[in-house]
TrEMBL record:
<dbReference type="GO" id="GO:0070062">
    <property type="term" value="C:extracellular exosome"/>
</dbReference>
<keyword id="KW-0812">Transmembrane</keyword>
<dbReference type="InterPro" id="IPR050749">
    <property type="entry name" value="Glycosyl_Hydrolase_47"/>
</dbReference>
<feature type="region of interest" description="Disordered">
    <location>
        <begin position="147"/>
        <end position="174"/>
    </location>
</feature>
<feature type="transmembrane region" description="Helical">
    <location>
        <begin position="37"/>
        <end position="57"/>
    </location>
</feature>
<keyword id="KW-0378">Hydrolase</keyword>
<keyword id="KW-0479">Metal-binding</keyword>
<comment type="similarity">
    <text>Belongs to the glycosyl hydrolase 47 family.</text>
</comment>
<dbReference type="InterPro" id="IPR036026">
    <property type="entry name" value="Seven-hairpin_glycosidases"/>
</dbReference>
<keyword id="KW-0735">Signal-anchor</keyword>
<dbReference type="GO" id="GO:0005509">
    <property type="term" value="F:calcium ion binding"/>
</dbReference>
<feature type="active site">
    <location>
        <position position="398"/>
    </location>
</feature>
<feature type="disulfide bond">
    <location>
        <begin position="461"/>
        <end position="493"/>
    </location>
</feature>
<dbReference type="GO" id="GO:0005783">
    <property type="term" value="C:endoplasmic reticulum"/>
</dbReference>
<dbReference type="InterPro" id="IPR012341">
    <property type="entry name" value="6hp_glycosidase-like_sf"/>
</dbReference>
<keyword id="KW-1133">Transmembrane helix</keyword>
<dbReference type="Pfam" id="PF01532">
    <property type="entry name" value="Glyco_hydro_47"/>
</dbReference>
Length: 640
């Protein structure tokens, strides 16, 4: 195994580190006898010096100083005579004899070690260059082998939670069954084209018919679409396709790459996708890949506050934040959307490191002052201070609130702290961000520098589903109120779709005078195959069985089919108000992970992935409720 060259930021190449023995010029393949003798002489002089130093320098082992880090402050240091806080430990009396014996034993050991080292050095000098090379090669092979074994290492078995409803959901109604079949066909079209034209790339360009990627996935081909799509394939019964994906992951998915990725995106799409695939299929490979990736993300948490960087280089572990984020901050929706996956990682590995990282974030946030009770979107990981006071339930904030609620649900409703934080947060949101337009549409605006901006993003439309999901268990039994609120948000978001030429919603829409639920700026008129509105329809359908949600979902499916489908897959649209659509030529991985999955579930029976057994991460990857989560995570390994 060669040590790769390191590339510093300046782009100057640092030569490979040579960890082997010094290389000799070619014209002197072997050392002459006189040179060997001089080398031996130097070596023995050095060893004699070491012995001298050992015997004649003052014996520091008598003075044991506790002067490192916190111990110095926390441990009261008392010597035998009672000198308090001296910082020095002195040994006297009967212990002295035992101590001298120990010293003698140590000296003898060091002497023996030195003699052994000398013998080994002599032995080395006797060997030819070829012999030395062969030895190094053997060592290298050993290391490579050890690494491979480590990769293949099976993780400790844990009781897998009761997996209810991982297939089925066949609708009784013929019409609904046909609709479900149509969604499955759309999934196959998206997958088959990705397989033909973009296999192994992160995403697909369905018009150019080639691979595509963005900076969130770094510079490597990590097959984001494969990982993101696996569980959708599984629940749709597309098993051959699932197997193709599994094989690609087994043979190609490698996280030891020099690539800087988004911690949040990689967590929700890759770790979430792999964990869901593991729970559904029981295939160990998915679990071990998820853990390998999680290990690579851990260096992102090495900040003065423990709030992770937004990006991390998978090879070097160096982290940093997005250049556009306010005052070098990390983003609330990013560092606040790790909890579900990290708790599952600790559950599956028995290693509490993941759990501790996310609980640390939670505790830190809980203790912080919140302006008007709202969580700003920006937090500086060096200072622990908020950046710009901008609060949003759409982009930059959204899934943080979602994960508070889902942490509670995933813990079988035992993580009360998470529920409390969720309740507090949505109360403040309702008070300051929620508003009703002149035409009677309820919307969630954004709080910027002390005032409400009357603009709602497509991303914020997920909140309709969140309010419905959190209704049960709400404070002062306001379940009815939150279910209604969810329904109002669903209606508003449906209006944002219905008021366009293509019946697909814009990225962001305004409520300004006569303008209601319509995008105003050209740059906000695009639809990139996002799932949030359909996600809300599905949750509302599950909780109310009101047929309007299936009807609205079907309208969206038809519009996607009509305007986004092209021969090479599905593409986003640049302007949903123009009746002649222009494509953006990107098939997002979340289209397969989320949009098509929520549509499929909307036309399935409730017995497929029932919500009292499964909690969907923010990328729609289902993770089982951990009924024993608290027992396991409070450090009782016996039950593992
Ligand atoms: C998805 O990757 C996730 O839902 C995320 O939380 C935010 N948005 C995209 C899809 O729009």
């Amino acid at each position: 195994m060669t040590t790769p060259a390191l590339l510093p930021l300046s782009g100057r190449r640092i030569p490979p580190l040579n960890l082997g023995p010094p290389s000799f010029p070619h014209h002197r393949a072997t050392l002459r006898l006189s040179e060997k003798f001089i080398l031996l002489l130097i070596l023995s002089a050095f060893i004699t010096l070491c012995f001298g130093a050992f015997f004649f320098l003052p014996d520091s082992s008598k003075h044991k100083r506790f002067d490192l880090g916190l111990e110095d402050v926390l441990i009261p240091h008392v010597d035998a005579k009672g000198a308090k806080n001296s910082g020095v430990f002195l040994i006297h009396g009967p212990d002295e004899h035992r101590h001298r014996e120990e010293e003698e034993r140590l000296r003898n050991k060091i002497r023996a070690d030195h003699e052994k080292a000398l013998e080994e050095a002599k032995e080395k000098l006797r060997k030819s260059r070829e012999e030395i090379r062969a030895e190094i090669q053997t060592e290298k092979n050993k290391v490579v082998q050890e690494m491979k074994t480590k990769e293949k290492k099976t993780l400790p078995p844990v009781p897998i939670p009761n997996l209810v409803g991982i297939n089925g959901g066949d609708p009784e109604d013929n019409d609904i069954r046909e609709k479900r079949e149509k969604i499955k066909e759309m999934m196959k079209h998206a997958w088959d084209n990705y397989k033909t034209y973009g296999w192994g790339h992160n995403e697909l360009r369905p018009i150019a018919k080639k691979g595509h990627s963005t900076n969130i996935f770094g510079s490597s081909q990590m097959g984001a679409t494969i990982v993101d799509a696996l569980d959708t394939l599984y629940i749709m019964g597309l098993h051959a396709e699932f197997l193709d994906g599994q094989r690609w992951i087994e043979d190609n998915l490698d996280f030891s790459v020099n690539s800087e990725v988004s911690v949040f995106e990689v967590n929700i799409r890759f770790i979430g996708g792999l964990l869901a695939a593991y729970y559904l299929s029981g295939e160990e490979i998915f679990k071990s890949k998820a853990v390998q990736l999680a290990e690579k993300l851990l260096p992102a948490f090495n900040t003065p506050t423990g709030i992770p960087w937004a990006m991390v280089n998978l090879k070097s572990g160096v982290g940093r934040n997005w250049g556009w984020a306010s005052a070098g901050s990390s983003i609330l929706a990013e560092f606040g959307t790790l909890h579900m996956e990290f708790v599952h990682l600790s559950y599956l590995t028995g290693d509490l490191v993941y759990y501790k990282k996310v609980m640390h974030i939670r505790k830190l946030l809980r203790k912080m002052d919140r302006p008007n009770g709202l969580y700003p979107n920006y937090l500086n990981p060096r200072t622990g201070r908020w950046g710009q006071y901008h609060t949003s339930v759409g982009g930059l904030g959204d899934s943080f609130y979602e994960y508070l609620l889902k942490a509670w649900l995933m813990s079988d409703k035992t993580d009360h702290e998470a529920r409390r934080m969720y309740d507090d947060a949505i109360e403040a949101i309702e008070k300051l961000l929620l508003s009703k337009s002149r035409g009677g549409l309820v919307f969630i605006g954004e709080w910027k520098n002390g005032h409400l901006e009357k603009k709602m993003g497509h991303l914020a439309c997920f909140a309709g589903g969140m309010f419905a999901l959190g209704a049960d268990g709400s404070r002062m039994d306001k379940a009815g109120h939150y279910l209604e609120l969810g329904a109002e948000i669903a209606r508003t978001c449906h209006e944002s779709y219905d008021r366009t030429a293509l019946k697909l919603g814009p990225e962001s829409f305004k409520f300004d005078g006569a303008v209601e639920a319509v995008a105003v700026r050209q740059a906000e008129k695009y639809y990139i195959l996002r799932p949030e509105v359909i996600e809300t329809y599905w949750y509302l359908w599950r909780f109310t069985h009101d047929p309007r949600y299936r009807q609205w979902g079907w309208e969206a499916a038809l519009a996607i089919e009509k305007y986004c489908r092209v021969s090479g897959g599905f593409s986003g649209i640049k302007d949903v108000y123009s009746s002649t659509p222009t494509h953006d030529d990107v098939q997002q991985s979340f289209f397969l992970a989320e949009t098509l999955k929520y549509l499929y579930l909307l036309f399935s029976g409730d017995d497929l992935l029932p919500l009292d057994h499964w909690v969907f991460n923010t990328e729609a990857h289902p993770l089982p409720v951990l009924h024993l989560a608290n027992t396991k995570l409070s450090g009782n390994p016996a039950v593992r």
